[in-house]
Request: fold
Amino acid sequence: MERAKVALVRGPSRRGNIVAALEGIADQVKLDAVRYVLVKPNFVSVNRQLAATHVDAVRAVLDFVRARYDGPIVVAEGAAMSPTWEGFRNYGYEPLVEEYGVELVDLNADDALPVQVYNRRLRPLTVYLARTVVEADYRISVGPPKTHDTVIVTLSIKNMVMGALVNPQATRRSGGTPRLVQRLAGLAPRWMWRSNLAEWGKGTFLGRSGGSSKMAMHQGFPVINLNLALVAPRVWPHLAVIDGWQGMEGDGPGNGDAVD
Reply:
């Protein structure tokens, strides 16, 4: 098995660091026969920049890719519980269309393909993956390093897996989350969201049939890790960019503190 090559760069700018790191592994990036490149940022939140992929990190990736590839590039994400297009607008992604000739895609509105995982009783459970991610023949994950309340850390594999799972109701303004649940979530102390009770609620109510496949993955701490391992081979990133310009610690993946 070929060992992955890793480049680690420290410098004065986010964009420059990422380009330099990618140049350090350029011989590993083969795009000659690629039909389309998928670039996958992280929008677990559509209105808190610290929890999301900075657009300049994506620009750095596109600088590198466009110098080697003139085919279709799709920048695609399925926000966790809010309309993805709010994230594209709030974080300044829309200019990328003209700057690089890319397409912005909301994965929550994509055609979906079934994949089997397990519920908390280890019985088969079907969730759905965005076709655009599954069928991409070159996937690039781009995101900041963040602590995570149920799987310890979000880096590249989890970013790709959870973003590829669809939440078709998130195209609505409420993100498909019942208003009562939203209000209760706002009142609940943060420690409660890291409890077994919260995991049960995410999987049982928010991940109900026809709801969020992302939330359906939450079947308790052991099973969500098993489910990530089961889904990952379907959407494995060919290239992972961890933007360490600013990370998150503490109450991640959405409400932690900045680490520079």
Summary: The domain at 14-250 is CATH 3.40.50 (Rossmann fold). The mean pLDDT is 89. The longest strand covers residues 112-118. Residues 161 and 232 are 6 Å apart (CA to CA).
